[in-house]
Amino acid sequence: LAEKKQRKYKVLMSGYYGFSNAGDDAILISIYSNIMKSGRNIEVTVLANKPEQTAEKYGVNVTYRYNVFKVALDILKCDLLISGGGSLLQDRTSTRSLIYYLSIIKMAKMFHKKVMLYANGIGPVEKERNRHLVKRVVSRADFITLREENSLEELRKIGVKNKNAL
After folding, report:
1. In what helix (H) or strand (E) does residue 45 lie, and over which residues does it extend?
2. Residue 126 Cα distances to 7, 75, 90, 95, 123, angstroms
3. 44-70 burial string, b = 16+ CB within 10 Å, else e?
4. pTM score, two decimals?
5. What would the pLDDT profile of 9-44 be if each residue is shown by its tens digit?
């Protein structure tokens, strides 16, 4: 008898990957390893800046993070979006990067996908408009883990009310 093939659970990872940053690449490896320990029926795709280099170096499926149509398709196909590691949600570096990460999360929620913020450092978010955007988007996340207590305080100051924040 033919063995019934189980559907793969699809996870999409969004973070500051593929920029040749050792710390962020270590986060990628850590999150990916933890996901893969949880079962064989999981397929992970990573959004990265240098897809070929990231795929070759870490042996992961990769989508170019700025290919809007492919990213949207990957979000549509995934079961879970993990936005993770590092201080992605801050506007000290730039508002543009904050908007990028919030847009990925927002698109996932528009497609009714589960969203997890994984070991995030939050802030500083200084501009009032950006604080409002973070509040609106992060409040809809399904599960939030934070890097440290200061990030939880920043979320509270911004006004994020999410019972799933740790």
Report:
1. strand 42-48
2. 43, 29, 8, 10, 8
3. bbbbbbbbeebbebbebebbbbeeeee
4. 0.93
5. 999 999 999 999 999 999 999 999 999 998 889 999
